[in-house]
């Protein structure tokens, strides 16, 4: 069994849970607001800050597909194709995205970090189109879908003026294979804060490697003599307003029918370097735990095959940020059977804080 396929598969479930595009391609779990149900129209119009962009897109598997020509000519993204390795490189500012189209969609690498998902990709009469979620996930765009006019409205948001690159830890022995990627940030004016955040991220990666080696030693080889596999990949899920948030996916396989996916979230203040707990963001939210518990309980009860047992998240559950919302997650088997994968629920801050409250104020 290949771990990449398993990791990719979980993103479809995440897309459904977060109420975004119900796409057949993974990699669209974190769309902004574009979610398209099947309909007769195939042409899609794109606008940027209200101005129409020349080329037309298409409707894909639950999401809008945007031509690369719009990225290049309308959005100022530098697009280069390398015929030798069949790779498209998209560059804008501090961001470099590499896309390798394949039968399952495009494999995406962002600033050296492999994304554990595919993004829908289509070639129509020589024109390449990619899921609009590539823009909303990485390039700092928000999007809105108008079904009446088949229009996607794009707007650019201001990202933090930093760069992130990828560091790797790879280990292999007779019973274990480990591949861990973790982010390294640069460009912060406060070098002390930058070092603090980077050391925290490195410590987490090294701790996971050590725990993986210990677990593998304890387990030994799999029932058919297979090596134990441990992988970890990250996505920058939020990078605005002096805050950076990471979603980390770990994959572990010890032999048998399938491996296990594990999600973790880490959020930091770029002003202080502190890793933020949920209580830091919701300090003006009164009894926010009760509000979140009620929302989560309601969502879980609507899940097919809900196993029951949820009572409370507690004061500081695991979370990450995405598109102005916090995302609460549960691991496999926690409240639903394995086949339903990870559960991830987006909750807007507006549902938890007084109107007009900035959750990042003072951080």
UniProtKB/TrEMBL annotation:
Q: Give residue ranges for domain DUF3298.
A: 279-350
User: Which positions fall inside the Copper amine oxidase-like N-terminal domain?
Assistant: 48-153
Task: Please indicate if the UniProt record lists Signal as a keyword.
Answer: yes
| Alphabetically ordered keywords of this record | Signal
In the UniProt record, the signal sequence range is 1-31
Report if keyword Signal is assigned. yes
Q: Which InterPro entries match?
A: Cu_amine_oxidase-like_N (IPR012854), DUF3298 (IPR021729), Mao_N_sf (IPR036582), PdaC (IPR025303), PdaC/RsiV-like_sf (IPR037126)
UniProt domain Deacetylase PdaC: residue ranges: 170-259
Q: Name one Pfam family in it.
A: PdaC
What is the name listed in the Swiss-Prot or TrEMBL entry for this protein?
A: DUF3298 domain-containing protein
Native species: Paenibacillus yonginensis
């Amino acid at each position: 069994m290949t771990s990449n396929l398993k990791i990719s598969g979980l993103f479809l479930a995440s897309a459904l849970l977060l109420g975004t595009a119900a796409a057949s391609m993974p990699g669209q779990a974190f769309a902004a607001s574009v979610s398209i149900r099947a309909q007769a129209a195939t042409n899609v119009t794109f606008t940027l800050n209200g101005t129409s962009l020349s080329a037309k897109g298409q409707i894909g598997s639950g999401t809008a597909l945007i031509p690369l020509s719009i990225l290049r000519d309308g959005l100022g993204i530098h697009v280069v194709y390398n015929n030798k390795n069949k790779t498209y490189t998209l560059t804008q500012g501090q961001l470099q995205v590499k896309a390798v189209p394949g039968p399952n969609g495009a494999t995406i690498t962002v600033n050296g970090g492999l994304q554990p998902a595919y993004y829908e990709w289509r070639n129509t009469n020589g024109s390449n189109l990619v899921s609009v979620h590539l823009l909303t996930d990485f390039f700092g765009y928000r999007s809105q879908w108008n079904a009446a006019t088949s229009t996607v409205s794009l707007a650019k948001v201001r990202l933090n003026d930093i760069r992130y690159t990828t560091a790797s830890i790879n280990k292999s022995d007779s019973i274990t294979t480990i591949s861990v990627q973790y982010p390294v940030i640069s460009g912060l004016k406060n070098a002390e804060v930058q070092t603090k955040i980077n050391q925290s991220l490195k410590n987490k990666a090294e701790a996971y490697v050590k725990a993986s080696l210990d677990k593998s030693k304890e387990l030994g080889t799999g029932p058919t003599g297979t090596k134990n596999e441990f992988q970890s990949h990250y996505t920058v899920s939020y990078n605005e307003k002096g805050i950076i948030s990471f979603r980390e996916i770990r994959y572990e396989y010890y032999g048998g029918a399938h491996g296990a996916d594990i999600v973790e979230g880490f959020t930091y203040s770029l002003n202080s370097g502190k890793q933020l707990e949920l209580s830091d963001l919701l300090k003006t939210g009164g009894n926010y735990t009760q509000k979140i518990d009620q929302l989560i309980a309601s969502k879980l009860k609507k899940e097919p095959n809900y196993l029951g047992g949820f009572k409370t998240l507690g004061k500081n559950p695991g979370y990450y940020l995405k598109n102005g919302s916090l995302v609460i997650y549960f691991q496999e088997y926690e409240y639903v059977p394995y086949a339903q994968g990870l559960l991830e629920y987006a909750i807007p801050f507006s549902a938890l804080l007084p109107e007009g409250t900035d959750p990042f104020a003072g951080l």
